[in-house]
Amino acid sequence: MFVRLDHIYLSVKDMNRAIKFYESILSCKVKHRESNTWADFDIGNGVYLGLINPNIISNKRICGNNSVTVFWTDNVDLLFTKISKLSVKIIHKPIDLDFTDYPYRCFQCYDTEGNLLEFAKYNK
């Protein structure tokens, strides 16, 4: 049996605002969009990041703070500078974690829809 990550989707309140944010940080355009209900980005290796309107799934779904999505980057500090200009709430500036067995540099922020994101560089 083979299992691999296929996609992750985030609940968003404002599809256009969320698309603009993710196009900016991922440096790519939406691969597929279904009106105001769904949009996805091909982030490589057959893995997709999806954005979904929670109203089409369930009125019990909430936006923001359901999980932490971690993006790997080759330059945490440069990406932090870019994201700092996007008017989103920064949780912490880039730091080097001292509780890992390998170098791990990261920062966290919320996206435009209230989802917690982490951007990290590490080598295992």
Give a description of the structure.
- The protein has 124 residues and is α/β, with parallel strands linked by helices.
- It has one domain: Roll (2,3-Dihydroxybiphenyl 1,2-Dioxygenase, domain 1).
- It contains 2 helices and 8 strands, in the order E-H-E-E-E-E-H-E-E-E.
- The chain has helices spanning 15-26, 76-84, and strands at 7-11, 32-34, 38-44, 47-52, 68-72, 90-96, 104-110, 116-122.
- The strands form 2 sheets. A 4-stranded mixed sheet has the order 1-4-3-2, covered by helices on one side. A 4-stranded mixed sheet has the order 5-8-7-6, covered by helices on one side.
- The two termini are 25 Å apart.
- The mean pLDDT is 88.
Tally of domains: 1
Distance between the termini: 25 Å
Instruction: Give the CATH level 1 class.
Output: Alpha Beta
Content of β-strand? 35-45%
Put simply, the count of helices is 2
Uncertain segments are: none
| Average pLDDT score | 88
Query: Strand order within the widest sheet?
Result: 1-4-3-2
User: How are helices and strands ordered from N to C?
Assistant: EHEEEEHEEE
| Structural class by sheet pairing and helices | alpha/beta
Question: What can be said about the biggest beta sheet?
Answer: 4 strands, mixed
Helix content: 10-25%
Q: What's the CATH topology label?
A: 2,3-Dihydroxybiphenyl 1,2-Dioxygenase, domain 1
User: Over all CA atoms, what is the radius of gyration?
Assistant: 15 Å
The CATH architecture designation is Roll
Count of β-strands: 8
Mass-distribution shape: globular
The named CATH superfamily: 2,3-Dihydroxybiphenyl 1,2-Dioxygenase, domain 1
